[in-house]
Amino acid sequence: MSSIVLGVSRVRYETVTYFRSPDAVFFTFLFPLVMLGIFTAAFSAAGNIGTNPDGTGGISVGAYYLPGMLAAGMLLSGVQNLAVDIAGEKGDGTLKRLGGTPLSPTSYFIGKIGQVLVTGVLQAGLLLLVASVVFRIALPTDPARWLTFAWVFLLGVITSAFLGIALSAVPRSGKSATAVVIPIVLVLQFISGVYLRFDQLPEWMQNIASLFPLKWMAQGMRSVFLPESFASLEPGGGWELPTVAIVLGVWLAVGLVVGRLTFRWIRKDR
């Protein structure tokens, strides 16, 4: 219980530290919002997506890309943010100093995951607010859809946080962390239906993306914000929400186990 209490007390510290880092705020917190604005401004002239042959129906470009940006925000807040942050703390000696205090790895993890949850909720709320007010994107009114949003978001954020902790063991130094982590995150976004329409990607690329959690987070979010008619464009012909839960649950377990086994207050090769 003392580890849990100490971990919860670190959430505020981790959150304040996060917002004091301008590069982290831009590239993880505001980046999905910036990209949604760019896509909306650049491609709105092409007309709605999914229109009927007579030109009716369909949804705006902004409405189509909103689910992908929400999923990308979850990945950035968890995987990219924590992987770079923890690797940096390991490189500058912060973790070594913390290892000499009563702080346990469990408390440290709780602080980091709590920070991801707080910033993830704020990010999603800001993104939805701007989408509704500025870009005039109609949000769902069905409570069942918001319930789906809640569990996909919560499961996706926690999964991303654990994977970020696990990935932080890969960079050999804090200076190389961004060079290692950002390309991985960027490639996943391109092949998982965030910046490109997933139904228009080559089948082999779709199959690769299906092995990773971002594709399923984006698909879960599309089930919330897109019309039901768009479900037929998914590879399985539907939203496959049970599969979304299973895949994210498996990756959560992988991140938890790998993160706990590889975490060290100092690098093992030092």
UniProtKB/TrEMBL annotation:
<keyword id="KW-1133">Transmembrane helix</keyword>
<dbReference type="InterPro" id="IPR013525">
    <property type="entry name" value="ABC2_TM"/>
</dbReference>
<keyword id="KW-1003">Cell membrane</keyword>
<keyword id="KW-0472">Membrane</keyword>
<protein>
    <recommendedName>
        <fullName>Transport permease protein</fullName>
    </recommendedName>
</protein>
<dbReference type="InterPro" id="IPR000412">
    <property type="entry name" value="ABC_2_transport"/>
</dbReference>
<feature type="transmembrane region" description="Helical">
    <location>
        <begin position="116"/>
        <end position="137"/>
    </location>
</feature>
<dbReference type="InterPro" id="IPR047817">
    <property type="entry name" value="ABC2_TM_bact-type"/>
</dbReference>
<dbReference type="Pfam" id="PF01061">
    <property type="entry name" value="ABC2_membrane"/>
</dbReference>
<feature type="transmembrane region" description="Helical">
    <location>
        <begin position="24"/>
        <end position="44"/>
    </location>
</feature>
<feature type="transmembrane region" description="Helical">
    <location>
        <begin position="243"/>
        <end position="263"/>
    </location>
</feature>
<feature type="transmembrane region" description="Helical">
    <location>
        <begin position="64"/>
        <end position="87"/>
    </location>
</feature>
<feature type="transmembrane region" description="Helical">
    <location>
        <begin position="149"/>
        <end position="170"/>
    </location>
</feature>
<feature type="domain" description="ABC transmembrane type-2">
    <location>
        <begin position="23"/>
        <end position="266"/>
    </location>
</feature>
<dbReference type="InterPro" id="IPR052902">
    <property type="entry name" value="ABC-2_transporter"/>
</dbReference>
<keyword id="KW-0813">Transport</keyword>
<comment type="similarity">
    <text>Belongs to the ABC-2 integral membrane protein family.</text>
</comment>
<keyword id="KW-0812">Transmembrane</keyword>
<feature type="transmembrane region" description="Helical">
    <location>
        <begin position="177"/>
        <end position="196"/>
    </location>
</feature>
<keyword id="KW-0046">Antibiotic resistance</keyword>
